[in-house]
Structure prediction request, 756 residues.
Amino acid sequence: MSSTATQPGPAPASLKEADMKGALVPGNKPRAGLAWRILQICASLRVTVVLFVLSFLLVFWGTWAQRDESIWSVVNSYFRWWFVWIPLKPLTLELIDLPVYIPFPGGWTIGSLLMINLLAAHAVRFKLTWKRSGIILLHSGIVLMMLGEFVAAFQIEGRMSIPEGHSSSHIESDKNTELAIVRRLSEKEQEETLIPGSRLQYHDRKPIQDAQLPFDVEVERYLENSDLRSVEKTSQPNPATVGIGLRQVAVAKSKVSGTDPNQAVEIASAYVTLKKKGTGESLGTYLVSTWFSFLLIPAEMVTVDGKKYEISLRYQREYKPYTIHLTKFTHDKYIGTETPKNFQSDVRLVDPANNVDRAVKIYMNNPLRYEGETFYQASLYPMGKGTVLQVVRNPGWLMPYFSTAMVTLGMLVHFGIMLVNFIIRRLA
Amino acid sequence: MLPRRSWLCVLVPLCLAGCREDEPIVKQTVPRVSVMQRFFGAILPKGEKIWFFKLVGTEDDMAELQEPFDEFLKSIDFTDPLKPKWKLPKGWIEEEGKEMRYKTIHIGPKEKKLDLSVTALGLEAEDVTENVNRWRAQIGLVAFHKRDLEPFLRKVDLPAGPAIVVDMIGPGAVAQGKGPPMGAPPRPGPDALPFKYEAPKGWEKIANITLSVLTFQVKEGDKKARVTVSELGKKSGSLLDNVNRWRRDYAGLPEINETQLAKDVQELAVGLESFKYVDIDGPKQRILGVVWPRPDSTYFFKMAGHTDVVEKHKKNFETFVKSVQFGG
Prediction:
């Protein structure tokens, strides 16, 4: 598609011609200066080709990386970031497996440069004429498509699990974790201090210290994917000195690869040592695990300066200003089988700020849409009677539709103009 | 051709962009919209009995009771193996239990209904997995395989002997969350039962007592009897074990042997099947009991109470048992 943009005639000659024209425009001195030169470099067809090759390689290695990494890990490290260190293993098609990493521009870098390249090409070479209208429309569609990918970075996808008779006002991520230090203020409120899972993962053996934390946190180990074993059933060293970690040991599990047909959720665990601020006195090394929040195992309790704190590793939460209460959950099966026929959640949506209090039924192909979020019936509450709703917010969900329509229309217009001109020439 | 230095313009920002900044630590105050139930339990085998200590309440109440509960367990004294004693923490009030319950210990104000129950069962109730799964059901949790229950079980060496201590959180069998912002209709009880039944006229359905899945109270003036349906695991003991438990604990009669049992036991026809049926009249109470084996468990239908009430409602009891239809 962009190659269409780079066909303004014999490229080197027209570039030079454009350079000369730009330089000779009377009273437009900056065009002959550094800015115009940089714009010309940005508009270069060679840059387009190099960026295309880089993007092909990035997609190839990003796809290959999904043999070992999860889809979201690859999306976030290869495509939704500026810069990526690619291991030698996929680079050499798994012929060489050494802990060597090659730096490579990430998806955001290549996408941004392609966008600059395209816009610069229009600024330098293309003219706003009816003859070029198809190409301009087509390229506008591509720009919109690229912007759509940036907007998609703000997409939220999570789940809301509600036992029957209970309520929820938060969405849980199934990708990111957080170490939650929770103090109950009253029956209706709690104070949460949250350390993002990435801080536990990339701790560099430095203690996590922050004025907001009631104690310092030292990460002994962080396991991106883990399993729990009884202490008696494993010979693995157990760093825990208090709590459930004295009975259970977290063992590392290989990460869920993007090619795994089951696409199970990764269940992280960590060993953290809590230390008193100032004195550095150890309060114990705790095992925290998203297994515990999944299985509903009570959180560990730590008392500091007379205040009680619960610590737990959980999936990152996003709190909402509204509440969903599950009144009834129905799970119908086909008679005589275990095959699900229908899942239905009868919920009450309550948003006091907007005077909303209504009953809604959520079932297959009948999601609840509210405040830019869509709640789909996804699964059963794993620990008892209840529901799991998939929650999606994608502010740019219409952009791919518009951009594809614009590209299609642009191509039709462009080829239509070419066809008409051809027919006119033949008839003349 | 691009000037060589121009690549620096690309590479330098790229290298800088490669460094991720630490995500910030966040502190926030958030509403608690749903409060779960928390369950403390202990299983303590002693001699011929398995002792069960059970305390259920909201997460908030129970968070304060974790240490007192542990201290209570440490204080249990089995000098008399059939009548254990303990040291009660301040504010805990003990009272005699009813039926299978040995004692009930009230904690805090009565309106909170925070009761620690102490129950003793025979060795037939020693299966930890079955007991913990029964407790899980009581707080709205699904049953787990033995190996998956390990994280919930704490083996503790108490002065009274080795015990299994359990700590679990669940939504509650019937919605009990304090937080729903509007009145949620309570879940009708019979939905949870795997069988249908017809209750005789005059029987009053009341809250379930320990182990029972369905309980009725029957009154004749001041005299009372109670009808219970209980589900126990496959290892719920032999018929002789159960009859002797009823004779000993309810009727106040001495135990009998197999020969005597064969004389006492009758059959109650229900549809195409028939089940063992006993009628035990003792100085304390009169008991009617039907043992109904199922593929995965055993159901006990029992009427216990004043002799006159049991006599008057014996036919009703038999009609009630005959009305039971298990689904699936």
Residues 59-74 of chain B form the longest helix (16 residues). Confidence is low (pLDDT under 50) at residues 174-191 of chain B. The radius of gyration of chain B is 27 Å.
